[in-house]
Write a structure and sequence with these properties.
alpha/beta; 334 residues; eight-stranded mixed β-sheet; 2 domains; Rna Polymerase Sigma Factor, Chain: A
């Protein structure tokens, strides 16, 4: 799918490092109306791009291009926007600086304002790390975001999720071909290990007990791991994947000059009507963690996706799960 590039120029990141030629890749669906009040922001997820987001976009769906101007924005580190794999030395590869979700959303706000003249957002929504960005939008710009939804994601990364991501990271960097990130050929063993680690976290215990891999056409569990997971990251750059992990681990809604570490203030600032949609069996973002966030928000509710598909309940894998998300988005847009 063809995409556009917003050239942001020199961008100072929260880390204190400046990206000299920062670029943000995006696509749009639908048309911006004359009042510029039909805008939906839909940021990308971990290891994904705008191309993965069409499951919620289309005629008759909540994100209907006949009604709304939907902009799907790729995070820094995604491989399309500025990333370790496409940034010039000396900031390429493992020398690419830490990017926070605050950095991403501040850039996205510039894109909307400078390219389209948009300042008001009807809805911001996202899955996983896309949901992190939805939280950031609603907290940083509370008077400009009317509604927000986060499905299978959180506003602040918990210690447990941080530790899970440490395991994923180690899967890559312990490959001898990793070479500190200055690899000459991709660290395929590390990327394969990353896939196998992810396989145990992305889907739930219930999913595995039900032997759902058989319904995916795999003869055995090992057949499923080899056929679905071993090569799933071979077309992704390892440094890009690690950059996104660093962004995920650093996600903290209150870590900015507006809130100075005050989580209660950061969540309480969200004026948008919000629906937070955890998956009942999501191992990354448990229901209890989202409930604790919603308790700090003045106009929010939790709607649990009752699914055995773990984290993937938010990603368009199962029609019934996607229908729950679509219904919530329709409620927010009503």
């Amino acid at each position: 799918m063809k995409y556009e590039i917003f050239n942001a120029g020199r961008v100072a990141l929260q880390s204190g490092i400046t990206l000299p030629d920062c670029c943000v890749a995006y696509v749009t669906h639908g048309r911006l109306n004359a009042a510029k009040d039909n805008v939906v922001v839909f940021p990308s997820r971990y290891a994904g791009t705008h191309a993965d987001q069409t499951y919620l976009i289309g005629p008759g769906k909540a994100l209907d291009p006949e009604k709304y101007f939907i902009i799907c924005i790729n995070m820094l580190g995604s491989g399309l926007s500025s990333s370790p794999s496409n940034t010039a030395r000396p900031l390429s590869g493992p020398d690419f600086p830490l990017v926070t979700q605050y950095d991403n959303v501040v850039l996205q706000e510039r894109l909307l304002r400078e390219v389209f003249g948009v300042t008001q957002i009807k809805l911001v929504c996202g899955w996983s790390m896309g949901g992190q960005q939805a939280f950031q939008w609603a907290s940083l710009f509370p008077d400009r975001v009317a509604a927000m939804a986060c499905f299978c994601g959180q506003g602040t990364t918990t210690p447990h999720t941080h530790v899970f991501l440490e395991g994923v990271k180690q899967g890559i960097i312990t490959d001898p071909d990793w070479r500190g990130g200055y690899y000459e050929t991709p660290p395929y063993k590390g990327l394969m290990a990353k896939g196998r680690i992810w396989a145990g976290w992305a889907l739930s215990q219930e999913w595995y007990r039900a032997k759902m891999w058989e319904k995916q056409g795999f003869a055995t569990l090992e057949d499923y791991l080899k056929g679905n997971w071993d090569g799933i990251y071979f077309n992704r750059d390892a440094n890009d994947m690690l950059s996104l992990i660093a962004t995920w681990q650093a996600c903290d809604l209150a870590n900015n000059q507006l809130y100075n570490g005050d989580a209660n203030a950061a969540y309480a600032a969200i004026k948008a009507r919000a629906i937070i949609l955890p998956g009942r069996t999501d191992l990354y973002f448990p229901v209890a963690d989202n409930a604790a966030e919603v308790a700090m928000m003045p106009n929010a509710e939790v709607r649990v996706i009752d699914s055995i598909w773990g984290h993937y309940a938010g990603g368009g894998r199962v029609a019934e799960d996607t229908a729950v998300i679509d219904a919530a988005l329709k409620d927010l847009l009503a």
